[in-house]
Amino acid sequence: MTAPNIAGEPEDVRTERHASWAELFFDLVAVAGVAALAHVLGSGPDAPAMGLYALLFLAFWLSWTTFMLYSNVAAGKARVVRLMIGMFGLGVMAASVPGVAHSVLGHDGDAHPPTVFAIAYIATRIYGSRSWRKGEVLLDFPVVQYSTGLLPWIVSIWVPGPWMLVLWAVGIGLDLLLILAVSGDKLLKQVQSRFTERTDIRHQPMHGVRPEGSPSAIHGVSIDPAHFSERLGLFMIIVLGESVVQVIGAAAEAHYDLGVLATGLASFVLLAGMFGLSVVFGYAGLPHLRAGRIPARAALGLHCLVSGVVATVAVSLSAVMKHGSDPLPEQGRWLLCGAVAAYFALGVITGVVSHSSDLQRTISRIVTGIVVPLLLGLFATGTGGRTLVLCMASVVVAHLWFERHLTSIGDGA
């Protein structure tokens, strides 16, 4: 049995459904947790801060993915109470982020020790992995049903200092390795084989050999592709909306002048342009993706990276609001330019693997979307942060215009 791609299935196989209100509520809380990670990069995006930022983001994303896939497969049978409990766990994780940043990086905000975050993450993931009905094996993303990656997190509760973060990283790494290495089809065959062996041993003394053709209690389940792509797109929209909120919050604390207004406008254009590329001219929240071109597992991995990059762009824009017209510090300049370049690099990868880009388009996207921001990060040492934001917004608008132009040509043809 092969896991479906995100193209969807014929209408006579599955009835199209949309995200429920409870699922949207859950996504909002998950993105609020991602927004809380701004505390990690608040005092400067150095290497330790970036590492912690990536680690905590992956923890939030894996927790969200666990419940998202559960509600996707369960459909109308998904329990709202279960989603609410998962939301509470994500809320505790979000509230613990300042405490983690204080303990690890020395930032302000020591209300909660890092162990609170670890315990909330462990409890949320375990509870989410137990959401599946007995005998179900998720073929598309089986890692959400297993807790191997949580073992280092459990040990970290009793390990103080930097080794705690090492264990967290090992746990996240194990989950990522399982995502890449574990095949749902192979896992299903192994589980069914073990179940058959146990059943034969249990029934052999009474009934002899297990009757041939008797149904197995273990079966594989697959995602609803249309609902899956919608949830990924909605998550990206909420991340972009939360990014706008962060920029507005930073602007509210700045001294109002024309420079702040211009920076706010350029920041909004930049984020709105990413919305256009990821949602309007993309698919499942991924720029340059077309329906049915890549497997669900690949879409989830790219979605994780793209949403993390977009959240990082929001932190950079808020920093520009605080610095005004002054040049950004080197680390801040590279964070902004590198995040924009990473967004377009992921778009290039998406376009190539989904065969939605020819060679000419790919080269133009690399030059304008990746090379230009990196050159600005390398040479624009004395350039003000506001000017850099304007340049990044111009790059995004150019790509948006190009995509719209290609779409109009395709429609005309």
Give structural notes:
With 413 residues, the chain is mostly helical. 70% of the residues lie in helices and 1% in strands. It has helices at residues 21-35, 47-74, 80-105, 114-129, 151-156, 162-181, 184-207, 225-253, 258-280, 296-323, 330-353, 359-379, 385-412, and strands spanning 136-138, 219-221. The chain has a two-stranded parallel sheet. α1 (21-35) packs parallel to α3 (80-105), α3 packs antiparallel against α4 and α12 packs antiparallel against α13. The longest helix has 29 residues, at 225-253. It is globular, with a radius of gyration of 23 Å. The chain starts with 20 loop residues before the first helix and ends with a helix.
Topology of this protein?
Blueprint: H1 21-35, H2 47-74, H3 80-105, H4 114-129, E1 136-138, H5 151-156, H6 162-181, H7 184-207, E2 219-221, H8 225-253, H9 258-280, H10 296-323, H11 330-353, H12 359-379, H13 385-412
Parallel strand pairs: 1-2
Helix pairs in contact: 1-2, 1-3, 1-8, 2-3, 2-4, 2-6, 3-4, 8-9, 8-10, 9-10, 9-13, 10-11, 11-12, 11-13, 12-13
